[in-house]
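Sanity check

After download, print the first record. It should look like this:
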Amino acid sequence: VDPSGTMLWTKNGETVCTFTGYQNDMGIAPDGAGGVIAAWMDSRVHDCDVYAQSFNANGDTKWATNGITVCVEVNWRRALSVISDGSGGAITAWRDRRSGGASCVYTQRFDGNGIMKWTNNGILISGALTNDNWSICADGKGGSWIIWTDGTNAMLQGVNASGSLLASGSGITLYDHLMSQGVSVANDGLGGAFAAWRDNRKGNYNLYAQHINSSLNSVWTAKGETLCVIANDKSAPVALTDCGGGFFTVWCDNRNAADWNLYCQKVNALPAAKLIASAAGGFVTGEDSKTIADANPGALGSDLVVAISTDPQAQPIAVNADSLLEADSKAGAHRLTGIKREFSAFRSSSGEGFTQNFVLPVTLRIPFQDSDNDGIVDGTSIPVENLGLYLFNEVAKTWDKVSFTLDKNGKELTTQSRHFSVYSILMKESVSSTLKDAKVYPNPWRPGSGTSLDSTDITFAGLTSKATIRIYTMMGEPVYEGEETDGDGFFLWKGVNQNGADLASGTYIYIITNANGERKSGKISMVR
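Expected structure tokens:
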């Protein structure tokens, strides 16, 4: 049916399945190309099995007449759900009693050609399901999140695109209470999930929620944040991503005693977030009112929800907080200021985390404190003039220096970035007394690749307080010369020639020299 109400396919509907017996308990999901995938329970072999069919945008069936087999097993299956896998296929999940005992939850993924991608007849998620208290959502990466109750606990499990379970054992326990039930789940756009459920820990049934990040850690209060605690019972919560790092939930509510009504709530999981239209540009301010991400018109390339955490150690958006501690340890306690900021972006249309590079650099402003204006960062012994700005390297778990501007009067460091991550203000690394340990990274350099080899600059580190860097072609032609003069042992090169023009992809020779007559050379490759 098009937006004007016109029927586009055969009058009275296309045939999905007319096989002898009954077909029911169905679900549908979009295929991302104007078509749809349908799945249902079918009694042609057992009571019941799972079958599926795909229709293209014209209403033509793509798979075998009367559908393909998703699961055919002994005993029965019930309560089917189907969602898109984001790649033209679908993920189904259902209640299953093939073991003959307690009901279990199974799930299966199949691609746009109807090929099963996971274990034959489905992957076992839970061996102890009570009633139909379970729910599924896509994780935005070809996998899914499934929540259920086992009669005692509210549980959560993730399945990645390859069909591997994310959590060990029986899954993640959200709340361990005899009457946890009425569950729902929504993805957070960053590889994690929001879970909502009801339980009677306070006597009557109330609603609670938890945020599980991509590292499978609970972000909110243990045993869940309170969504609704008021007189009488609540039931059947349904969770839905808000496409901005938070979620909506709607539920049935008996607070008026005489009847059941519907109520809704929105939960913002991000410390500070704002929708920025790419064409107009705009800025987002952190909770400290000083940390800023400022995008010029057209810079983002897409309409994005931009979020800032001013304390990613305690309130991470997407980063693993333990990894930040590892990077701190490698940097050395004497260099730490405690200043970290996480910048993240989400697609406004789907809530999926945006991990690509922006079209143009975005300005990031990160403040420091020197309340008595003594030139020393508050709470440390670090002189303001020795501050540097560092980017979290998620692969190496290190802080890597980036280009920045220090504003002593404004008490902030500013940088330009085409990719959001976590930044920290640190004392600059101590200068080396020799070129022996000088190094160049990333090497090879792949600007704009979105990988660990992507960086705004090529960094020469471990230099003496004064050093000269010369770049040559493989034929020995000089193309660039720069000087390390600020005494921090670093030199940042943007892969340009002496006139500031980008050098072509290829391999170049670098030679580092200093006033002591030392010399170190090597090769650096760049792929633009």
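If your output differs, re-run the checksum step. Summary of this record's structure: Residues 331 and 399 are 7 Å apart (CA to CA).
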